[in-house]
Amino acid sequence: MEFNDSLREILKRGPEKASEDWMKSIGEEYGTVPLIFKRMSERPEVLLSHLLYKGAVAETSSIDPKYVELISLAVGAALKCNHCVEYHMKAALKKGATREEILEVVLIAGSLANAAVLADAYRVVDSNSDTSTCGASCDLRGVRFGANTEE
Fold first, then answer.
1. Which segments in the chain show pLDDT lower than 50?
2. Rounded to whole angstroms, how far apart are CA atoms 135 and 128?
3. If I label 93, which of 40, 85, 126, 132 is the partner at 20 to 30 A Cα–Cα?
């Protein structure tokens, strides 16, 4: 449904009824309604704003909907959101993704998430490499590491 059509429907039905209808259609399409949508539906204006935003992003995307779901699955995996992974995996399968594609995006997400953990930790270590603030914690088995390694 186009953005303007969605707005007209919300105004015509009212936020409570529009929210209820969207929740029902999400459940029918995906077999489940995410918990965040259920909680947002307690405040229909919040749910509708979120769904309108999400819909506008998806409708204006030049990326194939299957790949949008695979990207969403990968992000959910990297963020360790089991419910996100499950929801977007089902959606990706419904949009034609294969098991191999799903496993591949999870592998890529895991690799990037691991790199992010290492990069953040190494930045903390490097930022604390000043011997006046780092002390013995920057001395690993007699080998000093960090920015000031020439001491």
1. 147, 151
2. 9
3. 40
> Quick one: pLDDT at residue 151?
47
Smallest CA-to-CA distance from 5 within 47, 52, 43 is with 52
**Residue 45, both tokens:** 């204006």
Residue 14's SS3 state is: coil
Q: What pTM did the predictor assign?
A: 0.72
Q: To the nearest 10°, report the CA torsion of 79, 83, 87, 88.
A: 10
Distance CA 106, CA 84 (A): 12
The letter for the amino acid at 138 is C
- Between CA 76 and CA 86 the distance in angstroms is 9
Structure tokens at 129: 């490499």
* Cα gap 149→124, rounded to integer Å: 16
